[in-house]
Amino acid sequence: MASAISRKDTFMFKRLFGGPTTPEPVNRLAVVRNITVGRTVSLDPLAWRRLQPETVFNLETDALEITAQGTIALDSGQHVHRFYTDDHVMLQAMSDDPSGAEAYDFSLFIPWTSAYPPGETERRIWRDRLSEPVFDGAPEELPAYPRFWFSESDARQPPVTLWETIWDDRTATTPFSRIFQTCMLYARDLAGGRELMLALEMEPEKATGKSADISHEIMVGIPLEMAEFTA
Known about the structure:
Layout: H1 7-17, E1 40-43, H2 46-49, E2 63-65, E3 68-73, E4 79-84, E5 90-95, E6 104-115, H3 120-131, E7 134-135, E8 145-146, E9 160-167, E10 177-190, E11 193-205, E12 215-224, E13 229-230
Antiparallel strand pairs: 1-2, 1-13, 3-4, 3-9, 4-5, 5-6, 6-12, 7-8, 9-10, 10-11, 11-12
Organism: Brevundimonas subvibrioides (strain ATCC 15264 / DSM 4735 / LMG 14903 / NBRC 16000 / CB 81)
Protein name: DUF2491 domain-containing protein
InterPro entries: DUF2491 (IPR019621)
């Protein structure tokens, strides 16, 4: 009489001799120095404490839980990789390839102000501010910041425009959103190093292709050395 085969035996045979398996989800996002959605980045607080008391940058945590990831392909062929927390803290890296395998130029930004312009007049005023060689941060309770991009000239310079694609799932086949940005990067030198400031207009793209609510954002940042963070 044939003996019955239990579920446990069947599972053992599948492990020994193979059988249909569920494929591993494909990670479609770049992993930059082990950083991607769902992972934690540990920071060295000395990265910003060495700039005190001059800096306005301050972060109350040394651990970043990454919940979203942005990618930007520049006309120069470079790629910008951005990693976000739920509190909109942003870790940024540059690379010469989409995978971020040889990433460099790391920086860390915290949100400072966010506003929704009521009309085209306010948007034009904002773009004018971003075109000046020095950003007057007084309305936002910030110091003045010289322009970092195009710093070789004191002439007015139109801000940079780019598209950022945002993902919140490593295995997603479509992005969470795309955001058109009009932005300028600034920097001021302190005794202990450099402080950065990113000013931008964000215009998210809706699924219909029409733009969503437009916002004006300011983020304050610092450069990061590779030894100042791990994931």
